[in-house]
Amino acid sequence: MVKRRQSISTRIIISFVGFYLVTCIWSFAKLSKDGDSNSCHHNNDPTQSLTGQPHRDWLQRRRSLQDQKTTKSYNFTAALCVCVKDAEAYFEEFIDYHLAMGFSNVYLYDDSPNFELQRWYNHTRAHPDYSKVEVLHLSDARNPKGSSSSSNEEESNDDDDNQQSQNNQQQQQMLPVDPQTDYYEDCVHRFGFNGPKHDYFAFIDVDEFFVFVDESNYHNILDLLQDYLVPFGGALTVNWMLVGSANKSVYAPLPITKRFQYRDEKAHFVIKSIVKTSDYLGHRNPHAVYVRDVVVNGTNTSNIHTTAYPGANHKYALTPRGATDKTCPSKVVLLYHYRYTSDKEYIFKRCTRGGTDGGHYWCSDGGQGIRQGYGPQHIQSIPGSVFDDKAWKFLTSHVPKYQMYDSFEDFH
Ligand SMILES: *[C@@H]1O[C@H](CO)[C@@H](O)[C@H](O)[C@H]1NC(C)=O
Ligand SMILES: *[C@@H]1O[C@H](CO)[C@@H](O)[C@H](O)[C@H]1NC(C)=O
Ligand SMILES: *[C@@H]1O[C@H](CO)[C@@H](O)[C@H](O)[C@H]1NC(C)=O
Ligand SMILES: *[C@@H]1O[C@H](CO)[C@@H](O)[C@H](O)[C@H]1NC(C)=O
Ligand SMILES: *[C@@H]1O[C@H](CO)[C@@H](O)[C@H](O)[C@H]1NC(C)=O
Q1: Residue 107 belongs to what domain range?
Q2: For tag attachment on the chain, is the N or C end more exposed, with fewer CB atoms within 10 Å?
Q3: Predicted TM-score of the model (pTM)
Q4: Distance from the CA of 202 to the center of ligand 1, in angstroms?
C-alpha cells in the first residue's frame, strides 16, 4: 500500500517535470521563431539579434509581466495629435481604441473648410470618453499655412532614402512645406508646453492604430513608453504595418478593425514618431521630428530611438527626411495603417478628395482609379495576405460595446 502510494507520487513528480520541460522547450522555440522574423530589408541587423543584453532584458521583461498584468499608475501622460478630414466613418472607433490603450486625450485638428466636426464636439462635452477629445478647426492652428490641405506623406515618396543624396537635396528643396506639421507643432505648444502639459505626444492619422505585437507583454501605451522612451527622452519611432483591402469593394457600416484583418507579411519601412514634449524642437515632416540632441562622450548625438531594444538608436534619423527605419523593429509595437480600406473608399480618398497641389497625382484620368505601376509601392492597393485580428481583439476586449458587431455579416 505504502509502496503503491510512493509510486503514484513519483509519477506525479515525473509528469510535472515532464510538463515543465515541454513548456520550456516550447517557449524557447517560440522565442527563437520570434527572433528571426520581420526585418524588412536588412536580415543581418544586429539589433534584431537574440544574443546579448537586449535579449536578456527582453526575456526578463517577459517573465516579470506574466505576474503583473494590471496597469501601473504613472506620473506622466501621453496624448495624440491627429489631423482629420472626411474621417467621420471611423474616427470614434479610433478614439475608443486609443483611449483604451492609455492615451489620456486626443487632439483633433479638423481640416474641413466648414469645421464639420464642431457639432460632434458641441454634443460630446459631457460624454465620459469623448469629452477627452478636443476638436480644433484648421484656422485655430498657430501658424496655418494655406487655406485647405489634407496633404500628408502620401503626396511624397517616403522612400527617398534610396536615392542618391544629391537627388535627395534637390528633391527636398522642391518638396512643399507640409501644412500638417504646423498642426502638430501647434498641438505640442498648446497642450504640451501649455494647457494640460502632456509629457508625450504621438502624431498619427485616423487610419493608423498602434498594435502591440504580443499583448501579454503590453496592452497600455504608458507601459511601453516607460520602457522605451521615458528613460532616454527624445523620440521613439514606430514602423507601419500596411493593412490591405481584404478585397472589399465598398464601404459598410462596420468597424475598420473588424472589416480589414489582412495585412502585409512584414512591417513597412515608413515610421511615425512619439516625442517627449520637453525635448521637442519641431517637425521635419509628418513622420519625423527634431528633438534636442544628447551629448555622448562629448559629441552631440541624435536622441531618437526605436523599439529594437530599450535605448536602441534610430540609425535612419540622419537620412534627409528621417522618415524611415529599414530595420523595421517588429517585436513590440507597430502602427497598423488602414490605408486602403475598400476599393471605393480608397479611390475617393486618393482621387476625389485628393490633396492640395498634387492631389490627383496617383490617379488615372478622370479620377476613376489608381495609376498602376507608378509611384511608391504603398500607393497601390493590396488585399493583404496575412490574417491578423489583433486590433479587433484589442478593441473588443477593452471596449466591449464593439462585440455586437461580431453578429453582423459583411457581404461587400
Ligand atoms: C516621475 O517619477 C520619477 C521616479 O519614478 C521621477 O524620476 C520623475 O522626475 C517624475 N517625473 C515627474 C514629471 O514628476
Ligand atoms: C457649437 O457651440 C459654439 C459655442 O457655443 C457655437 O458658437 C456653435 O454655433 C456651435 N456649433 C454647432 C454646429 O452647433
Ligand atoms: C483577394 O482576392 C484574391 C483573388 O481572388 C485572392 O487570391 C485572395 O486570397 C483574396 N484575399 C483576401 C484577403 O480575401
Ligand atoms: C564613451 O567613451 C567610453 C570610454 O572611452 C567608452 O567605453 C564608451 O563605449 C563610449 N560610449 C559611446 C556610446 O560611444
Ligand atoms: C551641441 O549642440 C549644442 C546646441 O546646438 C551646442 O551649443 C553645442 O556646442 C554642441 N556641442 C558639441 C560638443 O558639439
Answers
A1: 78-405
A2: N
A3: 0.78
A4: 20
